[in-house]
Amino acid sequence: MLSWKVIIPFILTGSIWGSTWFVITGQIDGVPAAWSVFYRFALATPALFLVAFLMKRRLLLTRPEHKLAALVGVFQFSGNFLFVYHAELYVTSGIVAMMFGLLMVPNALFGRLFLGERVQSGFMLGSAVAIAGVMFLLVHEWSDNPDAGVIGGNVALGIGLAFVGILAASIANVIQANPTGRGVPMVSLLAWAMLYGTVFDLGFALLTAGPPPFPASTDYWAGIVYLALIGSVITFPLHYNLVREIGAGRTAYNSILTISVAMLISTVFEGYQWTVLTAGGMILAVVGMVLALRSKQSR
């Protein structure tokens, strides 16, 4: 755990993923969210295929493996990100990141339902504490928004969109863990899933947002490059190398660093206001996640 080949990837992935939540806000400022999602993965997909090729991973999939990749792509790289991007139209990026820290909860429930994985009582207790903490943050977000009941300032809509995005990501996580998914190199499965998701994103953008826009802002395209190459292609191999080095349970603690970075950036750049309620909620959420992850690790 103290070697540099563990510490550096751990810090990099947590910091990069923590920053992506704020970068997304610049992608939905005057540009339809659906097109920003498509641009991101249209750039990331060939780069991820290149990574899989350089890592000498098998790229030819069987028919059942392609079907699985298509399902993962629709839920992960379409449903998840489309809902997240639209959620950040209404809710502070750090709060959306904090909500996604609870991804372990539907993961555990779906894992129990579809894969027969056992859920420990310690995990349930920690999850309940984390959920209570996030609820404190959401209550503050709601009360701090004077137009909470109006579309355009609808915090409830943003929370709902983020929640559906969490469910989509969780479904993708669980279905890729079936026997078919376990037989495919992870980077190869992600590359094909991203390709299928990108095709779906293109169709969705054309149907819902009309012809593709081409913003003149260099900041916008710099954000696309950052999210696609740094936030997607570079971090995935680092993340899964951590899983291989220290195990999935310890790697999951990375989400705490991700959330901390996201909330720090929201405080500095989005003017997020801390109160006793939000500070207490943040502490409860982090403590609950640690308790839940420790229980999961001891399985």
In short:
The protein has helices at 4-27, 33-54, 63-87, 93-100, 104-115, 121-143, 155-175, 179-182, 186-209, 218-246, 248-251, 254-269, 276-297. With 299 residues, it is an all-alpha fold.
Structural description of this entry:
There is one protein chain. With 299 residues, the protein is mostly helical. It has one domain. The chain has 13 helices and no strands. Helix 2 packs antiparallel against helix 9. It is globular and about 55 Å long. The two termini are 19 Å apart. About 2% of the residues have low confidence.
Q: How would you sum up the global shape?
A: globular
Q: What letter string, H or E per element, gives the SSE order? A: HHHHHHHHHHHHH
Q: What's the rounded overall pLDDT mean?
A: 86
Which spans have pLDDT < 50 for at least 5 consecutive residues?
A: 148-152
Based on helices, strands and strand pairing, what is the structural class? Answer: mainly alpha
Oligomer: single chain
Structurally, the number of domains stands at 1
Radius of gyration: 19 Å
Name the beta content range.
under 5%
Task: Characterize the main sheet.
Answer: none
Report the helical percentage. over 70%
Query: How many helices?
Result: 13
Helices, strands, pairings?
Elements: H1 4-27, H2 33-54, H3 63-87, H4 93-100, H5 104-115, H6 121-143, H7 155-175, H8 179-182, H9 186-209, H10 218-246, H11 248-251, H12 254-269, H13 276-297
Key attributes of the depicted protein:
single chain, 299 residues, mainly alpha, globular
